[in-house]
Amino acid sequence: MQTLLPEMKAKLAGTKLAYADIYDTYIFRPIQYGIRETSVGCCGSGLLEVSILCNAVTASACGNPSEHLFWDSVQEKITLRVSY
Length: 84
Hints:
Structural class: alpha+beta
Distance between the termini: 22 Å
Largest sheet: 2 strands, parallel
Radius of gyration: 16 Å
Mean pLDDT: 77
Strand order of the largest sheet: 1-2
Order of helices and strands: HHEE
Helix content: 10-25%
């Protein structure tokens, strides 16, 4: 993604684009962002369920989703706050 940024900026003239690698920040300093769980997802058991298996009909969610880095066993659930 980072290597594509100059090309994307050229194709999308006038658009402000930026690259930020926030993954390592959340993994190595999760408490700073209110994240208390980085090893299992919030959906179901947090170990196996992914994608369509994590829905209101077939799976339960943890009681504190804002404290989990991952929604399911694959997908990060990250809220990024950007200041201009």
